[in-house]
Amino acid sequence: ARVGVVRESNAGERRVALVPKIIPSLLKQGVQVVVESGAGLGALIPDSAYEAAGATIGDPWSAEVIAKVAPPTDAEVARLSDGQTLIGFLAPRNAENQIGKLKSAGVQAFAVEAIPRISRAQVMDALSSQANVAGYKAVLLAASESTRFFPMLTTAAGTVKPATVLVLGVGVAGLQALATAKRLGGRTTGYDVRPEVADQVRSVGAQWLDLGIDAAGEGGYARELTEAEKAKQQQALEDAIKGFDVVITTALVPGRPAPRLVNAEAVAGMKPGSVIVDLAGETGGNCELTEPGQTVVKHQVTIASPLNLPATMPEHASELYSKNIAALLELMLVDGKLAPDFSDQVLADSCVTREVDA
Ligand code: NAD
Known about the structure:
Elements: E1 2-5, H1 23-28, E2 32-35, H2 47-52, E3 56-57, E4 65-67, H3 74-78, E5 85-88, H4 99-104, E6 108-111, H5 126-145, E7 153-155, E8 158-160, E9 164-168, H6 172-183, E10 187-191, H7 197-203, E11 207-208, H8 227-241, E12 246-249, H9 264-268, E13 275-278, E14 295-298, E15 301-304, H10 314-331, E16 333-334, E17 337-338, H11 345-350
Parallel strand pairs: 1-2, 1-4, 2-3, 4-5, 5-6, 9-10, 9-12, 10-11, 12-13, 13-15
Antiparallel strand pairs: 7-8, 14-15, 16-17
Helix pairs in contact: 5-6, 5-10
Bound molecules: nicotinamide-adenine-dinucleotide (NAD).
Nicotinamide-adenine-dinucleotide binds at residues 117-119, 121-122, 125, 127-128, 131, 168-174, 192-194, 197, 220-222, 225, 250-253, 259, 261.
């Protein structure tokens, strides 16, 4: 099979779907790689590094398989034709996705978001690899926006208390945020609606905030809360949040707007100079005062809602993503030829353009 690596066209998207390091293992499996000139530049990878790894520089859009990071734009969908295969983020739960168009164009498309969260598929799990980047970077952002130290400092000029950090929503990004905040010397607390998360929170040295709500849903995700649960949660969080210097929110429910966890009253109750980093901006935000994509100051609290944080660390984000893409691709290969076996749950679930008999 021939795989094309395209130059991403979305503003600010600095990641690339395959890095040179992963190419030798693909070549060994009979895969040729053609890379669009400049595809790696956002991640500081020159064309020459791809050539040195055994890829060719050329037109990726004519390849049998196209590997991408961001969902395709209209112009990109127009470049694809019948029989081609596309692998990448396709935002299958987003109402404005391109999946219908890809289907009518006869493109076979695999959405990394739809890979099941099972142990065998962990190596392909791009949501997780990129969420790790986002969780890490969210803490660095919080630390740099903060008017206070994270670690406890004992100096000749006095002692500074450690920052208290609350992470709301402890999936992959939240867990990485807790671990990173701890490494910086913060005192960490985690909260989630899935009770099974409590042990994971404690395993990274954080306290577990228990509000007595169990909303474990399907496939390891959370379900949306009932109105009564929402009211109870917002009230309890309003009381809890007051005591924290930094709040990082990552709560998501598949296919739904981000749950509202931090209301305006909760923000007003925080100490001046506190920081909220809201990673749920793409689906509306977890904080009522969040302005997606902006950093604003409300009630003397800084509220940052960065979008696409993984693209701000393009080197490692691309490296991890490449491993995910290569593993998914390998699962579709038989003797170097593309032959996806849809009795495999990972391929059946992630292929979003297939007609499935009811
Ligand atoms: P996610 O991005 O969908 O959501 C982030 C977190 O927000 C989740 O922990 C969710 O429970 C929480 N949340 C949702 N609504 C909330 C609310 N109202 N209040 C508080 N928290 C709320 O989650 P994710 O990072 O994609 O992880 C989802 C699950 O998948 C986790 O259990 C994770 O451990 C699991 N997972 C499994 C595998 C695997 O086994 N292959 C790989 C990755 C992740």
